[in-house]
Structure formats: structure tokens, C-alpha cells
Amino acid sequence: MPERFTQLTSRTFVIPQDSIDTDQIIPARFLTTTSREGLGASAFYDWRYDANGAPIPGEALNSIDPQEHRILVAGDNFACGSSREHAPWALLDYGFRAVISTSIADIFTSNALKNGLLPITVDDATHARLLAEPAGRVTIDLEACELHIGNEAPVPFTVEPFARQCLIEGVDALGWLLERRDAIEAYEQRRAQELAA
Q: For residue 161, how far is the Cα from the chain centroid?
């Protein structure tokens, strides 16, 4: 079950490259598991490790603090390529809770929202400001659908309403339905009685 997401204040981690695909986020050879746990170790693996599996010296992804850097700011067209739930799983397990870009692939957006990772698209000017300030402090207010960057006016963003509600409640779609099980069963009983009358 994902943790509740109402507000998040964090430093950003910036990867300015455009068109980072899902195979870069988690290479296909790591897709042999259906468990989410531990996938963070494989996130951006080919960027972080050499052919022998040794950490690449100076690679910033190997030294970030996942408690401090929970917001990934990426270049345009983030998470393009094949659909794989492992991509948001890996990013979440690595420590990220949100991704900000000027555009994010639709399939990744859907997978991310279903799994507790918040994808946010912003205008070019806001994106440029975020790229120019790596490790800048940003607050995401999901209830208000606003980004707060420094002392500037809040930047609005949109999220599909049902996915937003699930994130705020800390449930996935199945969890949301199960929380309403009593009401669903009561409706089914009423409807059965109406049809029988």
C-alpha cells in the first residue's frame, strides 16, 4: 500500500537529459521479478555501474540521500519507450516520490499513478528554473495541486482526479474499492431486491 501523499517538501535531483526511456530507468534484464522490494538497486543501473558491476566514480546517482532528494527533475519526454511497472517501482524503491518534467510518457504516467509515484508536467519556464537549481528545495502540495519553489507564486499542475484521491488516501484502486466494500454490498442487496420485486 502506498504511503499517503498530501504534501512533500524535498530537495530535487536533476537529470537534464531528454528522452530518458524506461530501459534506462531499469534495464530489461532486471524485469524477472514481480516484487517491488529491492528494485531501487537496479534503478539507472547502467548509468551507475560499469560492466563489472563496480560503482562508477563520481556518478551523482550513487551518492544522493534518498531522504533528502525525493523529487526527480528530468528532461523532456521522460520515461518514453516500453511499458513496464518496474520503472516506477524502481524509482520509488530508490527513494523518489515524484517526477517533474515538461512531458512524461502517458503509459509511464498511468503506471506511476497506480503505484504511488506522482508524475508532474510543468511549463518550460518552471522546468528551466528547476533544472538551473539542482538540489533546490521544492514543496509539492497535492491537495492544492501546486508546486512551491522559493518565494515565487505557486505553480499549478493537474493530476487525474481519481488517481489524485488515491494518492492522498494512500491507497491503490483496489484498496479504494475495498474501503467502500460495505457500501458496495449494501447497494448490491438493494439492487437485487429491486430486481426481484
A: 16
**Where do runs of H (alpha helix) occur along the chain?**
22-25, 45-48, 86-94, 106-115, 124-132, 161-169, 173-179, 181-196
Q: What tens digit of pLDDT does each residue of 3-34 get?
A: 889 999 999 999 999 999 999 999 999 998 88
Cell 504511503 found at: 3
CB atoms inside a 10 Å sphere around CB 74: 26
Q: What is the amino acid identity at position 142?
A: L
21: left (phi over 0), alpha (psi -120 to 50) or beta: beta
CATH topology of domain 7-196: Aconitase; domain 4 (3.20.19)
Q: How far apart are CA 116 and CA 195, in angstroms?
A: 39
> What is the rounded CA–CA span in Å between residue 69 and residue 11?
5
- Residue extents of the structural domains in the chain: 7-196
Helices (H) and strands (E) in the chain, counts: 8, 7
Q: How far is the C-alpha of 75 from the C-alpha of 103, rounded, in Å?
A: 8
